[in-house]
Amino acid sequence: MGVAEPLQNLPRSAALGKEHKKIAIKQVDAFTEVPLTGNPAGVVVNAAGLTDQQMQTIAREMSVSETAFILPATLPGADLRVRWFTPVTEVSLCGHATIGSFHALSEEGMYGMKGPGSYSFNIETKSGMLPVVVEKTLNDTEIFFGLIVPEFVRAAQYKLDLMRILNVPLEEFDSRLPIVVAEDLFVPIRRLHTIFAMKPNFFALSQLLTNRKLRGVCVFTTETIERRSAVHSRFFAPNVGINEDPVTGSANGPLGVYLFEQGQVEPVGDMVTLIGEQGDVIGRKGRVIIQLTIKGTQVMSVRIGGRAVTTLDGEMIIP
Predict the structure, then answer these.
(1) How far is it between the farthest Cα atoms of the chain?
(2) Of these residues, 61, 66, 172, 261, which one is catalytic?
(3) In the chain, at which end, N or C, are there fewer CB atoms within 10 A of the end residue's CB?
(4) Number of domains, the chain
(5) Could you tell me which of 179, 115, 113 has the C-alpha nearest to residue 152?
């Protein structure tokens, strides 16, 4: 029987493999300024030349909910292109990984963001063109992007199923506010304590969401941890492999619209700005800035934003 030569004694090309290459990669926690909180995303700031299979493999290795890949634009009017991969598939849009991507690009001074200023970008994505604004100062960076204004349909018929699936007593539903549905179910709860204590039956919830062709359920309360916040939420999407998402920008935006339409927040002039809390119960505290432009009683636009922090910055060796 032969004896294997120790790896450290092999030539570097043999140890790594002739076809292997290094890529720069970061892990960024979005909707927070505190490392290891918020919602983590992988970011490859220069993904030019990577194949689809390599991107998928990198996302699987990063093992966070989404990894973003920054690429040159291919469409007129776009400044750059972003693709997002979960560990198992490509998705058309990811909010927290967008925040993470532009934090990483700003940190590196890429795409002209070398100093303080307000930078606007049109991003080519599989879901269409996405406008992103980066507000960079000497001390911090905030990233904002727009969402489609949701149209809600009242969904009281879900209450008894949700009571059973979420393990919440009927009296803990907030009777002042309706259960509504858009892409997700939005379920008002009376007390913060009930939100924290909630233990859903994820199998039953997955069945409900799949049968109704919904993405997830956002449970929320207007009782908050911090006085400056307007709402505290949790987001469950077991049918797409995410029992609980730490911080969900794409749910907080519609939630801000809902709160305005239900008279829970007041505009200042033609603007509403509020903060959504999420992630505290699972140790991933995050805060989402939600901004609405208003005309009378109608929401004309919605955008969400926040800050981020880089927690890993290095290289990955890939085949």
Answers:
(1) 83
(2) 66
(3) N
(4) 2
(5) 179
> CA Rg, the chain, in Å?
21
* 66 catalytic residue (yes or no): yes
From the list 230, 140, 220, 236, the residue with the least C-alpha distance to 180 is 220
Enclosing domain of residue 60: 16-146+308-318
Tell me how far apart the alpha carbons of residues 280 and 290 are, in angstroms, rounded to a whole number: 18
Both tokens assigned to 83: 């693709």
The answer to whether 250 and 237 are in contact (CB under 8 A) is no
Residue 242 lies in a domain: yes
Residue 4 counted as domain residue: no
